[in-house]
TrEMBL record:
Pfam families: MobB
Protein name: Molybdopterin-guanine dinucleotide biosynthesis protein B
Classification via InterPro entries: MGD_biosynthesis_adapter (IPR052539), MobB_dom (IPR004435), P-loop_NTPase (IPR027417)
Domain Molybdopterin-guanine dinucleotide biosynthesis protein B (MobB): 9-144
Length: 185
């Protein structure tokens, strides 16, 4: 559910090597240039299955985590890095960002099957079809460097159009048009 005080959430989904991170960086850069406060959330699907190795080996926070701390934080006057062992998904991660930071925009990379609206980054029609077959939902726009189907049900942007994409997304968000899935498999 969307609320007027919540930041704009821009989801980005696609396969490895499709350009998700490059698009995320371009959107972060564009939003920051417009004076917006931006948070970046990266879901690492590989880490879901891997050993818990986020802490620097032997560090104070690693030892505290090994001793049983479910939350660790490295902090200075310039900022902090918070780590939590509490299980959850995008809903909890968005809530955590809201709890610790006052931001206007959250760029969330990953989570193709999640219910929040997202941009599909694909390298052509075959990859688009594979993404839908993999369970991608709530696709509100597509970014592709070499594919622009006519009559497609959602807008298709090019990677260099971060400014246009951000403006389009923010307008739709304000209208409440990006709350529910727009396209599904």
């Amino acid at each position: 559910m969307r609320d007027a005080e919540a930041p704009v959430i821009i989801g980005i989904a696609g396969f490895s090597g499709s350009g998700k991170s490059c698009l995320a960086e371009a959107l972060v850069r564009e939003a920051a240039a417009q004076g917006l406060r931006v948070a970046y959330l990266k879901h690492d699907g590989h880490a879901d299955e891997a050993a818990d190795d986020w802490e620097k080996p032997g560090s104070d926070t690693a030892r505290a985590a090994q001793a049983g701390a479910s939350v660790t934080m490295v902090a200075s006057r310039r900022g902090f890095l918070l780590r939590s062992r509490q299980e959850g998904g995008f809903r909890e991660w968005f809530a955590a960002i809201r709890a610790v930071a006052d931001v206007d925009v959250v760029i969330a990379e990953g989570g193709k099957r999640e219910v929040h609206a997202k941009i599909a980054v694909v390298r052509g029609e075959d990859e688009w079809r594979r993404l839908l077959a993999a369970g991608a939902t709530a696709i509100a726009a597509v970014v592709s460097s070499d594919w622009a189907p006519e009559g497609f049900p959602v807008p298709v942007f090019r990677p260099h159009q971060a400014r246009d994409l951000l403006a389009w997304w923010r307008d739709r968000w304000r209208e409440g048009a990006l709350v529910a899935p727009t396209i599904s498999g």
